[in-house]
Amino acid sequence: MPVVHVRDSDDRPGGAANVAINLASLGAKTSLMGYVGRDDEAKILETMLQAKEIDCRFCVTDRWPTITKTRVISRGQQLIRLDREEPCTDPDMKLAGPLAKGLSEIDLVILSDYGKGALTDVEDMIAACRKQGVAVLVDPKGTDFEKYAGATLLTPNQSEFEAVVGACDTDDDLVSRASAILNDLDLKALLVTRSEKGMLLVEAGKDPLFLSTQAREVYDVTGAGDTVIATVGAALASGEPFPIAATLANIAAGVVVRKIGVATVSPSEIQIASQPSDPGSRGLLSELELIAQLVDARQRGERIVFTNGCFDVLHAGHVGYLEDAASLGDRLIVAVNDDASVTRLKGESRPVNRLADRMTVLAGLSSVDWVVPFSEDTPLRLLTEILPDILAKGGDYAPEDIVGASEVRSAGGEVRVLPFRHGYSSSNIIDRL
Question: With a threshold of 0.90, does the pTM exceed it?
Answer without folding.
Answer: no
